[in-house]
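Notes to self after the call with IL:
- keep both proteins in one doc
- input above output, always
- annotate only the second one for now

Protein 1:
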Amino acid sequence: MDLTCSGCESEICSTDQYMKCSSCKKYYDLVCLNIPVQSFKNYKPEHKESWNCPSCLCSLPKSDNSRFSVGIASQPPIKTMLSNNCENVNMKRGSRVKTTEQESTTTDTSLLLSEIRLLRQEVSDLKQQNTDIGLKLSNFSDALNQKLEDFEKKMCAKDEEIILLKSSILQLEHKLNLSEQETMKTELEIIGIPEENNENLCHITMLTANKIGVQLNDLDIDEVYRIGQKRTNPADKPRPIVLRLTRRAKRIDVLKAAKERRPLTSDDIVKGTSSKIYINERLTKTNRTLFREVRLRAEIYKFRFCWVRNGTIYVRKAEKQASIPIRTPIDLDEKVGPPQTAEASAV
């Protein structure tokens, strides 16, 4: 026989764990009555047979109902039982109290809250770590910027020092070049005279001077020699002859006469094929390089005249314009013009 609980109107699954009201004869399961299974097992048969449901108990007059009690050891007083049962009986279908599920939900909630607290603590620790890392990075960046600033100051100071040193070197080189050029104030350079073995250079220079109208003797010549490595191929150009005179006035006479007698050849001076001869002031290596560059720039920038006088290079753009001295490469860039690339020269 199927029994239905009058509290939740659900079928009572158990065949012996239920209570039957002695008054209304209705059935109730232990869950709706909130009676633990162990307590139900302790109930005496007389108590079960005389048990009244909460609805019937509520309808009884207020009097001594001790006859319905089971005993202190086995069941609470009827008044307390009535109060508890009335509070826990739910007459709606499907609303049975699920104590085990509530306890499980409470446990899950506690675990979830604990996990959330742990997660919040970990997030807080990460924030603190990020703050510490950010502070360390900021300090490191400040220190690095300070070092870079100090390094830049040192580099600027070094650059200024290098500029001063370069300027000093250029000044010293210029002074050295002037001193070296001053030692050559009595020297001439004769270019183009054919070179022969066992030649008498002193005789050759006197013949050359005599050809341009200047008389030289042994007392006028201090030293004469060819400069450069000795040629191994006779077809190579002859080496220049350096003539050092004893007086500067005689050097001026030779240069002036050579300028007036141009063009000058080697005829009547040495035997062999005739060649052009050039007599110039002797220049230092620095001044020779500068003079070569000055002639190239003068041609580019349309300067008509370029010459050397007393060891100084001069240029002049037109016939009646003032001569411009060129003593250093800086003078060349500023007074003549900067060097041009191959593309600019082609244009």
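Protein 2 (the one to annotate):
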Amino acid sequence: KKLVNEGVISEDEMHSFIEQVQKELRQAHDKINKADKMDNPDMEKPADLALPLQADEQSFTFDHLKEINDALLTYPDGFNILKKL
């Protein structure tokens, strides 16, 4: 839309580009064999993750959780966080 507003391309060209990309994405998606199973042993779930999670008896105070949260939201000087985050 921005390119149309700046006069770089016409609205028809924009729609043509969008349709072409969607067509290519549909074709790529249609090529995927939905019956394929992942058979790469390197990609199997680690054995430790197969075990059920164990309850942790450790408790945290609100102040401790707030301290952790504040530390996560503190950035070094000169570090610019992406606005969308």
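Annotation: Residues 1-33 form one domain. The radius of gyration is 25 Å.
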